[in-house]
Amino acid sequence: MAGTSDKPEARSLTFTNCQRCGGTHTDLVFLPLANAIDEWRWWSLCPATGQPVLASTPEDRPAPGIAALLKDYFALQKQIHDALGYREDWAVIPLDDRTASFWLVSQRESGGGFVVYSERPLTEETVRKGCVYSGTIYMQRFLPKWVYRTPTHTMVCVDTHIDGNKFLMVFDNAKECKDAALAGLYRDCWGEV
Ligand SMILES: [Zn+2]
After folding, report:
1. For residue 49, how far is its CA from the centre of ligand 1 (angstroms)?
2. pLDDT digit string, tens, across residues 124-171
C-alpha cells in the first residue's frame, strides 16, 4: 500500500484487497483512528459498500526484533543450503554470492583443485595478465564433497588464502567457462594458489 498525505490528519492511500469488497481503491482518504491498539491505525469507508475499512502503512508496523531477524536469516540460509544439496557439518563456512562472476573450476580426481573468477569473461589475455581472482578448493574434512552442482548453479567450497577467508561460493552455471585450455593456462602462469 503506497500513500501520500495532503493534510497531516488525513492520508490518501491506494488501498488494495479491500476488506469489504475485495477490490482496489485508488486515492481513498483515510483518517487516523482515535484509539488505535495496533498497526491498523487508519480508517475509511469502502466506496463500493459504504462499510468501514482499516489500513496500516509500512511506518505503522514495528520493525522486526533481532530474534525474528536471526530466525529468518538462518531459515533462509538453510533453504539455500538445501537447494544446493549442501549439509553443514561441524565447520561453519559462510555463503558468498558470486553469481555475477564469470568462472571456471578445475578439480582433480582427489577432489582438490582451483577456481578462477572475474567480473569480466575469462579469456587468454585476462588469465595471462592475472586480471582474475582465484582460490583453491577447500577440502574441508567433514564434507563428503566440495563442489555442489545443480542444473542452474554450482557451489564451490573455496579457500581464498587471504586473511583466512573460506567461502561457499555460489556461481551461475550460465557464466561457467568450460575451456580446459584456459584452466591449464592459469595453472601454467600462476600455479594453483
Ligand atoms: Zn471496497
Report:
1. 6
2. 999 999 899 999 999 999 999 999 999 999 999 999 999 999 999 999
Q: Rounded to an integer, what distance in angstroms lies between the CA atom of residue 82 and that of residue 70? A: 18
Q: Work out the angle at residue 125's Cα, subtended by the Cα atoms of residues 122 and 127, and round it to the nearest 5 degrees.
A: 55
Contact 139, 158 (CB under 8 A): no
Q: How many residues can be counted in the chain?
A: 193
Residue 1 Cα to ligand 1 midpoint, Å, equals 14
Tell how far the Cα of 55 is from the centroid of ligand 1, in angstroms. Answer: 12
73 CA from centroid of ligand 1 (Å): 36
pTM of the model: 0.73
Boundaries of every domain in the chain: 3-60, 87-190
Q: Give the DSSP letter of residue 58.
A: G
Count of CB atoms within 10 A of residue 25's CB? 19
